[in-house]
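Thread amino acids onto this structure.
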């Protein structure tokens, strides 16, 4: 379908209240899942971020890179091990994690944003000691628990009109590097920035009352309601830690957190600049 000029104008006019609402505010996007692997979806995500930046919204991109890490470990003949969903990270593995996340993945995203018309600079948690961490659990090796976030490198870049692209490795005062869960890092960074919203891209439509029926999507959940939904099994499995990160972000001052389907092209724009929205929104109190 080809839109007429009048239709295009109508789309822009309908987006205007949302553009005004988010103008000069910070949005943190946690990027992962299928949207990070599929090249067409990746281009759509980068286009969304550049558009938001160009209309005056301060965008921060926080990314993981599990599939790329798995691929590199396989290439060097190292088996991936997980405990409770977290990667067991020995000394050799943490070097590979740092190389893949802070090098390959981070720089490819920066390059793609630049080629899409944006201004982007890559950071990792060790830059400016943005993410300080300690060992989470000895059996996991160099998996980190965040102890402190200094957002100065991020805010400096935002003030200069850049999109900061943050890879989730952390460090400590002794020079150790840690693998940090991307959902945890995004929630903490968004909280420290007092972001207007955190958008978490996943491979599901959002929180469903019936996991097999997309028509049972829950569009809005109060943070106080989440524990009951967990007890009922509506929020279960791998979604529990993601939702816990959403609640943590709200507790730290983020106004709204969205879990959206990154498999839908332009899902970030649909959530941010339209009446319909997409996915599930978490808020601290009834709005």
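Threaded sequence (287 positions):
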């Amino acid at each position: 379908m080809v839109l007429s000029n009048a239709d295009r104008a109508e789309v822009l006019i309908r987006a205007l209240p949302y553009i005004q609402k988010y103008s000069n505010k910070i949005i943190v996007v946690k990027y992962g899942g299928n949207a990070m692997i599929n090249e067409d979806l990746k281009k759509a995500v980068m286009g969304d971020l550049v558009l938001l930046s160009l209309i005056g919204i301060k965008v921060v991109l926080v990314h993981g890179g599990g599939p790329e890490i798995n691929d590199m470990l396989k290439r060097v003949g190292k088996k991936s091990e997980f405990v409770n969903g977290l990667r067991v990270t020995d000394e050799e593995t943490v070097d590979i994690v740092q190389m893949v996340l802070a090098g390959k993945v981070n720089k490819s995203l920066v390059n793609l944003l630049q080629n899409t018309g944006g201004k982007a600079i890559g950071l990792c948690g060790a830059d400016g000691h943005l993410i300080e961490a300690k060992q989470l659990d000895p059996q996991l090796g160099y998996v980190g628990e965040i102890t402190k976030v200094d957002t100065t490198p991020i805010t400096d870049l935002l003030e200069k009109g850049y999109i900061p692209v943050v890879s989730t490795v952390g460090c400590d005062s002794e020079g150790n590097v840690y693998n940090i869960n991307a959902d945890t890092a995004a929630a903490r960074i968004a909280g420290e920035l007092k972001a207007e919203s955190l958008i978490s891209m996943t491979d599901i439509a959002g929180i469903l009352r019936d996991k097999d029926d997309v028509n049972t999507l829950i569009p809005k959940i109060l943070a106080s309601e989440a524990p009951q939904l967990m007890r009922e099994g509506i929020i279960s499995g791998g979604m529990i830690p993601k939702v816990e990160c959403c609640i943590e972000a709200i507790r730290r001052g983020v106004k709204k957190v969205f879990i959206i389907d990154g498999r839908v092209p332009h899902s970030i724009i649909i959530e941010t600049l339209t009446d319909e929205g997409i996915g599930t929104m978490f808020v601290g109190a009834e709005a």
